[in-house]
Amino acid sequence: TLSVDSNCSRIDTHPMSGEPEDQPEVEVEEEEIDEGDTTGALKEVLKRARIHNGVAIGLHKAAKALDKKDAQLAVLAEDCTEESYTRLVEALCSEHQIDLVKVKSRKVLGEWCGLGKYDPKGNVKKVVGCSCCAITSFGESSRALDVLLKNLKDVG
Description:
Layout: E1 2-4, H1 38-51, E2 55-57, H2 59-67, E3 73-77, H3 83-95, E4 99-103, H4 106-112, E5 116-118, E6 124-127, E7 132-135, H5 143-155
Parallel strand pairs: 1-4, 3-4
Antiparallel strand pairs: 2-7, 3-7, 5-6
Helix pairs in contact: 1-5, 2-3
């Protein structure tokens, strides 16, 4: 289990339009990630996974992904108020040997998972808390993913 203390900023990945067209592939700008920056790496990995529809958000979807062994990584908020919720996620992760990362706040995890509402200037208006999510697909390989996996390997 890896704990992450974090500051958050806006992540925005809304679909461009409802109709598929010949659109060029979108390049995701990668933030500069330091070797020890697990927070920034996790944030970037979640952003990339969301772009590729690889995040199961909430207990029901995350537990399903963990139980089916579809999940590659689980993220749990430390300030989750429901003890049984925390025990379930931790038990599924240990049973199926899936890495678990803990973050300090449900609100931060909610924003990273895309559950925030923003005003036209890009400032956060409201964030819905998220106690748990599971990454089922990392999307493409990135420096952030390498840093996160290296830090998980060092801790575990």
